[in-house]
Amino acid sequence: MLVQSALLQIFIFFTVLAVAVAPPPSIALESTKPGCQSRCGNLEIPYPFGIGSNCSMNLHPYFNISCNTSFNPPKPYLLVISPHHIYNYEVVNISETQIYVKNSKAQLSMACYGKGYDNKTWRSPLVMEFSNSPYTLSDAN
Known about the structure:
Distance between the termini: 62 Å
Structural class: alpha+beta
Order of helices and strands: HEEEEEEEHEE
Shape: globular
Number of strands: 9
């Protein structure tokens, strides 16, 4: 009986210990750094992203969001520098695991075409390049 009581106490001790040190069930995006703008237009910009200097994660400039206030409401943009070009992608949503962007200029160039050399119809290719960045493209959406 003494052994069973001791085993029960040990079991209860480790159960309480496991509950006390268990991580939270889900880890949400952190809020904006203190003193930094939290929104651009209708979109909340959570850390590691940030608007302005010293507001995003310092490891990489790819987390810095610029807020273009010439639109109503303002629009957030993500700058991506590739080996051949600099792209400004409009940010349409940020979730825990993904950032959704669109390239308005590339979409427009696909929709607008005309006569090229030798009177042939010409279309420019849709380009969204993320080489040398921490981002990858997904076909989820």
